[in-house]
Specification:
Layout (H helix, E strand, L loop, with lengths): L2 E3 L4 H15 L9 H9 L2 H16 L6 E3 H17 L4
Antiparallel strand pairs: 1-2
Helix pairs in contact: 1-3, 1-4
């Protein structure tokens, strides 16, 4: 399984993963979902950077490991994506 260096790679990896994931989201093609679909397609990398930047230090700064496996990184990214999706309309 691939590993990601916590200090040098993880923050960028998370930003890229979150941005790409949200860009690929698409709700059912009905009028009430148009706003969500537009938002997902126009989601900006800076939005992911802001959230990851706020959470990263708290969650990873004191971690003694030098690397994290990709599975754990994906699980962490999914928790941040959930937070974004829960508040997408704000």
């Amino acid at each position: 399984m691939k590993t990601i260096n916590i200090k040098n790679e993880l923050e960028k990896w998370l930003i890229d993963y979150i941005t790409e994931y949200i860009h690929q989201l698409e709700a059912e093609d009905v009028p009430e979902n148009e706003a969500f679909n537009r938002w997902a397609k126009s989601f900006e990398r800076e939005e992911a950077e802001t959230l990851v930047g706020m959470e990263f230090v708290n969650d990873w700064f004191y971690d003694k490991r030098t690397e994290v496996n990709e599975k754990e990184a994906v699980e962490y990214a999914q928790s941040l994506i959930k937070e974004i999706l829960d508040n997408w309309y704000l």
